[in-house]
Amino acid sequence: MDWTAIVLSLRLAALVSAALLVIGLPIAYWLTFSSSRWRFLFESVVALPLVLPPTVLGFYLLVALGSRSPVGRAWTAWTGHGLAFTFEALVIASILYSLPFGVQPVAASFAQIDRSLLDASAILGAGRLRTFWRIILPLSLNGIMASAVLTFAHTLGEFGVVLMVGGNLPGITRTVSIAIYDEVQSFNLAAAHQTAVVLLVFSFAALSIVYALLRKPWAVAPWA
Amino acid sequence: MGVNLAVRVRTRLSPQFRLDVDFDAAPGVTIVFGESGSGKSTLLRCVAGLTQPDEGLIRLGDRTLFDASTGVTVAPARRRIGFVFQHLALFPHLTAADNIAYGMARLPPAERRDRTAAIAKSFRIGHLLERRPGEISGGERQRVGVARSLVTDPEILLLDEPLSALDHHTQSRIIADLRQWNDARRIPILYVTHSQREVFALGERALVLQDGVIIADGTPHQVMEMPSHEHVAQLAGFENLLDTVVVTRRPEAGVMVCRLAGTSVDLETPLADVEQGRAVRVAIRAGDILIGIERPHGLSARNIVPATIASLARQGAVMRVEASLGVPLEVHVTPAASEELGLRAGLAVWLVIKTRSCRPMTAI
């Protein structure tokens, strides 16, 4: 079993989940409560990674992060080395790739909150920030946790984007899914099997947690 | 001491629906009465700042809350308004105490606690402060909702059908507590309801809203017992609305005689501002009509007309009798009276209606 790859994947997934918690909340808030007529465009952008082949996303990311892109140049100027084929590139790519998972469950649980609770909060003198912390966030905890678990699992399982952006550098960018692919390519089926089982069990457990969390939505008050 | 609320707003919510109201509310309870869809809730939301009207002015004492001409719109959080929502909108994850204290975030914790305890006591919910809304009864939740909106010392209280889901007894007790609370403060309270009972129980004044417009304004008695608007009569429970034509006017006696359309039956009604020969609708409560099986005499009632019973149906404690005098007329009697008189379909009877029980509908 390739423990280096497993640890690397876990580290990547944890970082991406944490980052998407921070990035996903404001995006989900805006998507839920904005009355902008252009909202549908942002919804499409957020959902894009769901329908794009990972290779397409990976290809454009590689171009965007490459040494000739503004981002790549800025990175090189700042750190002294290129961005492509590094662990940092994997994190950036995975955040974009998992964006729908970091936003949609959160937005869905925001949308389930009875709007009159938000009206009540405003009338009782609370600004948007206080309403968010005291009302919206506590009533969406299940959705937020589901979102984090899904992001984590989805990042663990990604393959195409990682391969395009990160390549296959052991200990740096070689994730579980790429390790499995490698083992299969070299007819090391027993090793592939061991690692694959870990991923299978983990994914099943993660999904079970999500569905168990979402089974009883908090935000829909039975007396409302 | 409370201040006056002045509301003049116009707003178009959909191509078909427009709210257009202009009224002042003094300290005390003003009932806003109307069917669902009449614009009652929208009116409250405009005053609270949750909906922005297209045009108009909302003032509370000398504070301008909204003025379309100068572009002033005070945010709901700064209007110093208490609002009790139709479904209460209690925060489900907070205890009753935290719900009540929510609006006092700027006060020191000790004062917050004291005020929460004090208002909980006056609304009889002191024993359930540590429970969440899901763990208490409907009436108790209502009390928490009212306490939460009052504890911030609002300058005006808006209630959107707050008691419609409760039984009469609980309603009356909460209303009594609310009255007592407001006796000391005297702030304007706008109380939205579609229940006739609440209009009488609470109101010092009633506005009737229909299709976004105020169609009646007066004391509950004036509005509900002597409606001059057909729609108000329907809302106020006048079962009979009869098409008639004015045949004689007798201003010296304060009465006029109206002939039921399509019949030769005349009814004496109080004098109204309708010319002779013009059509007027007359509203009569089914419970204000007496039935006799012989022609009564020696009565002060002026309208004694022959009719035939078309059908009878018992509805709870009321026997609904449909009598025909060329046009159908609904009459309510007790089942016992019906039995004693031997009322049955086809029986010829006499209907007795006092002049004052007939209300000509003069408003448009």
Topology overview:
The complex is a heterodimer of chains A (224) and B (364).
Chain A: H1 3-33, H2 39-51, H3 54-65, H4 70-79, H5 87-97, H6 99-112, H7 115-123, H8 128-139, H9 141-157, H10 160-166, H11 176-185, H12 189-214
Chain B: E1 5-12, E2 18-25, E3 28-33, H1 40-48, E4 55-60, E5 63-67, E6 72-73, E7 81-84, H2 96-101, H3 109-122, H4 138-150, E8 156-160, H5 168-185, E9 188-193, H6 196-202, E10 205-210, E11 213-218, H7 220-225, H8 230-235, E12 240-250, E13 255-260, E14 266-270, E15 279-284, E16 289-292, E17 303-315, E18 318-324, E19 328-333, H9 335-341, E20 348-353, E21 359-361
What do these coordinates show?
The complex is a heterodimer of chains A (224) and B (364). Helix content of chain A is 77%, strand content 0%. Chain A is mainly alpha-helical and 224 residues long. Chain A has a single domain (3-214), classed as MetI-like fold (Orthogonal Bundle), CATH 1.10.3720. Chain A starts with a helix and ends in a 10-residue tail after the last helix. In chain A, 40% of the residues are buried. With 364 residues, chain B is an alpha+beta fold. Chain B has two domains: 5-235, Rossmann fold (3-Layer(aba) Sandwich), CATH 3.40.50; 240-361, RNA polymerase II/Efflux pump adaptor protein, barrel-sandwich hybrid domain (OB fold (Dihydrolipoamide Acetyltransferase, E2P), Beta Barrel), CATH 2.40.50.100. In chain B, 24% of the residues lie in helices and 35% in strands. Chain B contains nine helices and 21 strands. Chain B has a six-stranded mixed β-sheet with strand order 7-8-9-3-10-11, with helices on both faces. In chain B, helix 4 runs parallel beside helix 5. Chain B is elongated and about 75 Å long. The A-B interface holds A 114, 116-117, 119-127, 130, 134-135, 138-139, 218, 221-224 and B 48-50, 75-79, 81-83, 85, 87, 89-94, 102-103, 105-106, 133-134, 138, 141, 148-149, 152.
